[in-house]
Amino acid sequence: MNTVNDYLDNILESLPGFLPEVVLSIGFLLLIIAEVFVKRPRLNAVLAFITVLVSAFLIYQQLSDPQILFANSIIVDRISVYFRLIFAGTGLLFILFAEQDTQLLQHRKGRGDLYPILIGALLGMNILSMASNLLLLFIGLEMVSLAGYILAGFSANNRNQSEAAIKYALFGGACSAAFLYGLSLIYGFAGSLQLNVTLIHQLTLLPLPLMVIIACLLVVGIGYKISLFPLHFWTPDVYEGTSTSIVAFLATASKAAGFALLIRLLVLLDISGYQVTAGLAIVAIASMIFGHLAAIGQKNVKRMLAFSSIGNTGFLFLPLLWFSASGLQAFFAFLVIYVVGTYAAFTLTAYFEQRYGSTAIQSYAGLGRKEAFPAVLWVIVLVSLIGLPPTAGFFAKLLSFNVVLSAYQLSKDTLLLITLAIAVLTTVISLYYYFKIPRELFLKSSDEYLASSQKFPLLLIIASILAALLLLFGIFPDFYSI
């Protein structure tokens, strides 16, 4: 009886630290009720926005208040707070973006059901970033994955779009099963669901081949979330076939959630050493080379951004090659700037798509004269994605390169130097394909395109703010600190 009472007391004591997630849960229920009884999508959007905003405020207050909750199953530390703030930011941007997405606005389903799914995804992401329990890790991953599958097929209007959503669900289901099998092996050999020192000690006693198998299974589960080569197969089709606002969320929040899971495992299992560094370096090299080379031949903006996101996954691995405080700082700097740049890119993609009815790169020919302001925004965003000054992308890549160089100077590991050289080379490659868009906008001419009568000012406002942040963080890098 005392044990039960102790557990109940611990749950009650832990609830204040879990308040941001409680707010998301309440908001989720209210959104479902509102959709059933009120059926006003704009009201759902406002309610979802307020829910995420309140949750973000409560999360921010936890920056200086690390806690261990629910019998060591949840860890509220600076890492989890940073990730949850990023998730909340992407959620707020998604709500604003979705309210301007004509594909969602005109869809027969409406968009009222979209916001409970969003809140459910954010709740799963938060759990994923805080969990120190094997079961909670899988629950968080599945919440994020299931929400992603629904979002990918939410606005499907034709066979190709439905096929992309099904491909994502089937491939994701197989990868989640592999991840679950890896977790079950850990539990079977360690005899505990809790990621702690005892479990780590039990794992060190396993034969090396078995540890490699477990690691591979875990990587499969994480890799498909972050579009890691060769687990990227779903990415181009989903990016091209899904409405742009949803793609922007999947490309940023979902990728960040995958890295939250990876970093949580690295921290809790205290994984380090040459084998891990070499493994991360190899997957970074493969993703950078494949993603950027595959992006060269793309003729559709969204497919190009899909393959570039695979390449950027490789770049996000660079600061983790030296798993330290400075490495994590560089990682979060890169992640935030990647999220801002990617959201800006998809916002501009949506603007031109809705104004001119196409996402083909060639359809941008000559539009730099008609759409001077959004065209200039495109240039700023692309310069940041490449990593050139004076934008934040340069600052982010400089920090990441410095981490790898410092790791090389300490370890004299040639693989780190090769990784750094390939990162620089693929940055040059990205310069070629990213500047296809400015070339079409300013250097090509074409017949007049029939523009929509709508101006979509909110999309330009969002893109302007995000582009201004990219310039601000680039010109004043000290302004941005973690």
How is this fold's topology laid out?
Elements: H1 2-14, H2 19-37, H3 41-60, E1 67-69, E2 74-76, H4 78-98, H5 102-105, H6 114-130, H7 134-154, H8 159-190, H9 197-204, H10 208-223, H11 235-241, H12 244-268, H13 274-296, H14 301-317, H15 325-356, H16 367-370, H17 372-386, H18 392-411, H19 414-434, H20 436-443, H21 457-475
Antiparallel strand pairs: 1-2
Helix pairs in contact: 2-3, 2-6, 3-4, 3-6, 4-6, 4-12, 4-15, 6-7, 6-12, 7-8, 7-12, 8-10, 8-11, 11-14, 12-15, 13-14, 13-19, 14-15, 14-19, 15-17, 15-18, 15-21, 17-19, 17-21, 18-19, 18-21
Q: What is the string of SSEs from the N terminus onward?
A: HHHEEHHHHHHHHHHHHHHHHHH
Which spans of ≥5 residues are poorly predicted at pLDDT below 50?
none
Between the first and last Cα atoms, what is the distance in angstroms?
Answer: 45 Å
| Bulk shape | globular
Largest sheet: 2 strands, antiparallel
Tell me the structural class: mainly alpha
Domains counted in the coordinates: how many? 2
Mean pLDDT: 84
The percentage helix is: over 70%
Strand order of the largest sheet: 1-2
Radius of gyration: 22 Å
